[in-house]
Predict the structure.
Amino acid sequence: MSNTLDKETLQQASPKLAEITHSLLFADIWQRDILTPRERSLITLACLVALGREKQLGWHMRFAAENGLSRRELSEAFTHLAFYAGWPAAVTALHYLPDEALPEDQRTEEKRPCR
């Protein structure tokens, strides 16, 4: 079996888990309108980084790009996570940050106080 599981290899490895992943996680939970897909991607990546689930990071980073997160925003999120999830977790996440396929953030920077 491949070292990474995508939709097809998950289907081969565990048809039931693939079915539940599609029908419950992506067709239901990810579709709820209380959080945007962009917000869900940030939450998911933060959890994966904090829990050290690095084999899932590449796929979810590409999915985050589809959901509108830029490379710059993901880099900033991982920098922020270094203080909460640990330096090694953040550095590992940066290793999986692809150079391609992630749009650069075109928004202007706005300085905001945190309180």
The radius of gyration is 15 Å.
